[in-house]
DNA sequence: CCTTCGATGCGCACACTGTACGCAGGAGGG
DNA sequence: CCCTCCTGCGTACAGTGTGCGCATCGAAGG
């Protein structure tokens, strides 16, 4: 039984390579950080436990010592990124400017990490992470100080809008990125198809020149669109502010 | 070479089962219909080409004769479901009621098919499907008739809000469904964790009784929240309507 | 010093995924 | 009759998340 021939190279302390301590040891933080880098670079479907492990000079299953499951890893990534959202301190003189700042910060964060909204629309309770909690707390403080008797309803109104717009924009930017072209190029190439698709639809065709008139800078157009909708929501909220 | 013994049962017209024409033949429509049924029943990660094929008495790869790829199938499913969204005809006396109806219809559709918003946030160009085009066209007609000089901006404002809120609600309902409990039960069981998570956050803790006070019917609470935010947006838009 | 122990990383394996490819069989047209 | 086209399928490949048990380590305890 024990005399089966072992043709494999004899494992030895000398052949076995040294444990490398130069690389930062595998840790939850390092894993999350690298996962975010991969998500940002190559999109959500490019992240696999094996590739992530390889990037950290580790095997795929080693990651599971620090993270229970891939879903949990995604929630950790979401919360990590939530720390980038800036909410001004409560009590300033201009609540609208403060809310605009917070909304804009959420949007740019969501566009910098286009997988964020995807995970938010999927993951159970990413809302309970510390950074996300912090974000919520600061928002609550802001709206309370502004004088809203039911701050949660106001927050939900504003940020449902912000999330919806950011989701749509992120999806758009993702497909643009996949095309390998710049946004303007992609728009130009898409135009004929869009025109043809909206042929026969009176109002879509009518609205089209309005859209493609200032087709100069698509990014600026998106900025304006976002700002417009946000102003709409804030105006509606201002009406409900007891004076 | 040809004399190798064949131990398999001899294939014959008699042993081979009849082609069943009782089952509706594999067709793109049938595939999409069945896919939607599976998505509704078991969620987005439960849909695989193999299982879908099995449900249709077909092999997995047979589906590819009618559908180029799984992503394309998802886009078809989205467009199919988009037909359920009801937009009142343009030109009625009360544009707010009409928009409220359309927004509500979008929301109930999104909650009936909780995978919808997920795919929307991912797929980018599902928008070119005929039903989705129809939906957009009717919206454009509605807002134009209401008198908005830039109907697209108004539509984007309203439906970014609607999409954002629906996405959040759908995600919530999905995790509730996964728990196997009713929404009230799940809320009750989640409460301690939420309370603990918001300990130390003054404003979140302060807002909590406000939320859990009428914890009677969570579904009604969500309805109210949605209606509130929608009113906010519509008020903001009304200010921009040239009179 | 040696021994023990808990923590960490890893190789293997399993069940599953989307889908490319080539073949078999039936439908219809010459 | 043959020939061509269309449909379905079996097989196969390259991947996926992750459970399990083993090897290795640094530290702790005797």
TrEMBL record, chains A, B:
<feature type="DNA-binding region" description="H-T-H motif">
    <location>
        <begin position="48"/>
        <end position="67"/>
    </location>
</feature>
<keyword id="KW-0238">DNA-binding</keyword>
<dbReference type="Pfam" id="PF02909">
    <property type="entry name" value="TetR_C_1"/>
</dbReference>
<keyword id="KW-0805">Transcription regulation</keyword>
<dbReference type="InterPro" id="IPR036271">
    <property type="entry name" value="Tet_transcr_reg_TetR-rel_C_sf"/>
</dbReference>
<feature type="region of interest" description="Disordered">
    <location>
        <begin position="1"/>
        <end position="25"/>
    </location>
</feature>
<dbReference type="Pfam" id="PF00440">
    <property type="entry name" value="TetR_N"/>
</dbReference>
<feature type="domain" description="HTH tetR-type">
    <location>
        <begin position="25"/>
        <end position="85"/>
    </location>
</feature>
<dbReference type="InterPro" id="IPR050109">
    <property type="entry name" value="HTH-type_TetR-like_transc_reg"/>
</dbReference>
<protein>
    <submittedName>
        <fullName>TetR/AcrR family transcriptional regulator</fullName>
    </submittedName>
</protein>
<dbReference type="InterPro" id="IPR004111">
    <property type="entry name" value="Repressor_TetR_C"/>
</dbReference>
<dbReference type="InterPro" id="IPR023772">
    <property type="entry name" value="DNA-bd_HTH_TetR-type_CS"/>
</dbReference>
<dbReference type="InterPro" id="IPR001647">
    <property type="entry name" value="HTH_TetR"/>
</dbReference>
<keyword id="KW-0804">Transcription</keyword>
<dbReference type="InterPro" id="IPR009057">
    <property type="entry name" value="Homeodomain-like_sf"/>
</dbReference>
